[in-house]
Amino acid sequence: MIFDKEKAKDIAADHCINDEERALIPSFAEVCSFLSEFPSELSWKTKKNNPIKPDPNTDEGLNILASKYFESYRRSDFPAEPSTVPDEMVSVIMEQAYGYTAEECKRIKLEHQYSMCAENCVGNLLERYINSKLSKSHWNWCCGEFVRAVDFIGRNEKNEWIALQIKNRDNSENSSSSAIRDGTRIQKWYRSFSKDTKKGRPSFTRWDKLPPLMQGYGLNEEDFKKFVTSYIAKEKTKK
Q: Which of 108, 189, 193, 210 lies at a C-alpha separation of 20 to 30 Å from 86?
C-alpha cells in the first residue's frame, strides 16, 4: 500500500484534544511517512495476543501509532516521588567513612533520591524543549519512542531523510543504541559532558555543536533552563 500523508493527518487530528497537540499533527505524519519508507525502524513491543506491529500504511496502524504518540506527549515529565527503599548500609558507611551523623545521613539519602528522580526527567524535557523551538522547522519530533534510536527526523536540502538521536550526556547512550546508529543515517548530539571540564573545553554544554540543520533556532542552555522552569511550574499546579 502507498502511504497517505493526508490520511495520517486526519487520523492524528481525531486523537488531539487541544491546539497544543494539533500543532504536532504535521510531525506525526512525517514520522509515519518515514516508517512507511523504512519499516524496520519501527520499534514496537508485540504481545502474544497481537504479534503484528502497526502498519503506517493502514488506518488501523495509524490509529495505534497516533494513540501512542499523543498519549506520550500528554504524559507528565514532572519528577516522580522516590519509590525505592534506601540501603541502610549506605548510612553505616557514610557515618564511618565521612563522619556524618545518623540524622544527616537520613537527610542526604532522601535528597539523593529526589536528585535521581529529577535527573531522570532531564532527557525527556530536553526533547520537549528542542521540539518547542523546532516545531515549525523541517525537524519532526518522534514522540512516543516508537522510532528505533531516533528522536527527531527531517530532510536535508536534497530532500533525503536525516535522523537525529538526542542524549542529555555523553555517557547516557547504551551499546544497543550505538550499534543501531553505526553505519546508518542516524546522527548523534548530546547536551553535556559527564566529567569535569577539561583544559581548553569552552563550556560544560554543547549547544555550539548542534548539527548544522538545527542551528539558527535559538537553542541554548539559558533558554533551556527557562523552559524547564516554566514546564515544572505548570505541571506542579496539576499535582
A: 193
- DSSP string covering 173-223, please? --HHHHHHHTTSSEEEEEEE-SSPPPTT---SB-GGG--GGGTTS---HHH
pLDDT, tens digit, for every residue of 172-184? 654 444 444 444 4
Query: How many CB atoms within 10 Å of residue 236?
Result: 10
Indicate the pTM of the whole model. Answer: 0.88
Model pLDDT for residues 32-67, shown as the tens digit of each residue: 999 999 999 999 988 777 778 999 999 999 999 999
Q: Residue 147: which of 227, 228, 237, 72 has the closest Cα?
A: 72
For residue 23, give the 3-state DSSP assignment: coil
Comparing CA positions, the residue from 207, 176, 175, 215 lying closest to residue 189 is: 207
CB 154 within 8 A of CB 162: yes
Dist. CA 81–CA 174, nearest whole Å: 25
| Residue 211 near residue 189 (C-beta atoms within 8 A) | yes
CB distance 219 to 187 below 8 Å: no
The predicted structure's pLDDT at residue 82: 84
- Name the stretches of the chain with pLDDT < 50: 174-184
